[in-house]
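Q: I'm building a small set of examples for a reading group on sequence design. Run inverse folding on the following structure and report the sequence directly after it, with nothing in between.
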């Protein structure tokens, strides 16, 4: 799997190299997955460093049916089904993971690029990785959908910007005081202000920092309905909660700055594992983990062009582990993977979309997960106005800056708390950003809760780190 090739959270490839072929969007949906797929699995072994670019001859095939409620069923050739307890989930619009016969399978969807014309092929995959649930026996696999549940869509070619717009995005950002005044005049829930440092960024750099162009989902899931059980459980929770102030202790690691690299997914992921380690060990393990090792070495993400917390805090941390910041310091740019054999690796397990699968999230489930297990990675849509957030409870104003081009992005961050404003009664989430501690409310922001503001209640991700002993 070549890196830097997919549109992702923080993803941004095409803009920097507008005429290079490698920048392509896999842009697939839940409905594309439904139906029957056939996979061929290559010979296995105990080597997890295996390169699946060329999977080699198949030694096994399996046929799997993917249905609603994340059910995956293995089909035998005589039509008799077995292992009806299989599980699958979509991973954003980029790929999927399924678990059958105590093996996990993960692959990105296939795409095809010719010049600037790129098309997602949602009934096929790039070669993917499979291993048993314990992570011992590894193999590569390929596959395609042989019977769609619905009529397959025509492949949609990606939409590209004009070259004039590409050039415009390479120019520097210029503060527009009128825009800031307009935001402050339009509402009183939050304050907008000037960030002088933005003038050092290009428009493109700011967009990448905010999650990356085209990271926005065309068919993102809405929050799932709340079950009676969940409602009852959530009603027992405290009215407000903040992992920075639990029994007088702070369980959240310091705010960091990702710079112009589209690595929000790595910061959100490491931030979750750091905080949850503190929670699990009553603050006796206060580590800072390395986002750069993810950017430079991660097989399941695309470096400074983006990635997903589900695959990083979750799958990568389970399959390969993560290392300490001091062993692999942050560079804020793409670079080749250094030897990490001297770095001790820590692991996480039980990674999941909050609610169980992609599309099953909601406010109450997020509150329960937060209070019970610790901070979690969330993603939300960043609009032009958000860039000027200085404090208060953010709500998108619908205003946009006519002078500074911007595109809506999807940005990964860390949810640490929730509460209600005593004066206005407005409910909010408290969220840790990775834009330095002088941004927003000391590196944090609050955003309206209960209304899926900017899609923040649709795709939360959790994973459980495993503390190292000694
Ligand atoms: C891209 O697609 C357009 C419209 O289908 C076509 O005219 C053009 O030749 C294609 N360009 C390349 C480089 O394939
Ligand atoms: C993804 O596909 C949808 C249609 O399913 C389309 O509206 C959207 O523009 C596509 N996104 C990209 C980045 O090509
Ligand atoms: C957790 O740490 C705090 C502060 O060091 C200490 O007061 C408390 O007793 C610890 N709790 C447990 C259960 O060890």
């Amino acid at each position: 799997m070549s890196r830097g090739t997919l549109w992702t959270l923080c993803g941004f490839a095409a803009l920097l190299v507008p005429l290079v072929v490698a920048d392509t969007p896999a842009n697939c949906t839940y409905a594309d997955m439904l139906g029957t797929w056939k996979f061929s699995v290559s010979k296995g072994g105990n080597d997890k460093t295996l390169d699946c670019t060329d999977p080699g001859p198949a030694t096994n095939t399996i046929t799997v049916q993917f249905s609603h409620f994340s059910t995956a069923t293995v089909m035998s050739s005589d039509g008799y089904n077995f292992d009806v307890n299989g599980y699958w989930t979509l991973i954003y619009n980029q790929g999927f993971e399924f678990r059958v016969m105590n093996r996990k399978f993960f692959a990105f969807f296939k795409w095809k690029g010719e010049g600037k014309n790129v098309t997602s092929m949602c009934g096929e995959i790039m070669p993917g990785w499979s291993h048993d649930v314990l992570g011992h026996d590894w193999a590569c696999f390929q596959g395609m959908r042989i019977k769609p549940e619905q009529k397959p869509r025509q492949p949609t070619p990606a939409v590209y910007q004009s070259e004039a717009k590409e050039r415009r995005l390479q120019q520097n950002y210029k503060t527009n005081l009128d825009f800031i005044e307009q935001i402050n005049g339009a509402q009183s829930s939050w304050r907008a202000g000037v960030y002088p440092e933005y003038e050092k960024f290009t428009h493109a750099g700011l967009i990448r920092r905010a999650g990356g162009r085209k990271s926005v989902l065309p068919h993102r899931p809405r929050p799932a309905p709340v079950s009676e059980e969940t409602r009852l459980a959530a009603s027992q929770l405290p009215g407000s909660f903040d992992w920075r102030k639990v029994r007088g202790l702070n369980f959240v690691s310091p705010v960091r700055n990702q710079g112009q690299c589209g690595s929000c997914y790595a910061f959100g992921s490491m931030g979750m594992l750091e905080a949850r380690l503190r929670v699990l060990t009553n603050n006796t393990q206060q580590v800072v983990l390395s986002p750069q090792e993810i950017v430079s070495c991660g097989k399941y993400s695309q470096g400074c062009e983006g990635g997903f917390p589900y695959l990083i805090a979750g799958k990568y941390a389970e399959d390969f582990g993560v290392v300490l910041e001091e062993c692999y310091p942050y560079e804020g740019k793409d670079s080749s993977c250094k030897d990490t054999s001297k770095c001790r690796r820590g692991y996480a397990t039980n990674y999941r979309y909050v609610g169980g699968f992609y599309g099953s999230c909601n406010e109450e489930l997020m509150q329960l997960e937060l209070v019970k297990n610790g901070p979690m990675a969330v993603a939300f849509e960043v609009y032009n106005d958000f860039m000027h957030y200085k404090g208060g409870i953010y709500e998108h104003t619908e205003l946009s800056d006519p002078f500074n081009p911007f595109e809506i992005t999807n940005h990964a961050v860390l949810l640490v708390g929730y509460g209600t404003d005593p004066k206005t009664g407005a409910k909010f989430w408290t969220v840790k950003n990775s834009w330095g501690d002088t941004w927003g409310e000391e590196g944090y922001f609050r955003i309206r809760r209960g209304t899926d503001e900017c899609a923040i209640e649709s795709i939360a991700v959790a994973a459980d780190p495993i503390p190292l002993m000694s």
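The pocket of 2-acetamido-2-deoxy-beta-D-glucopyranose (ligand 1) is lined by residues 114-115, 117 (CB under 6 Å).
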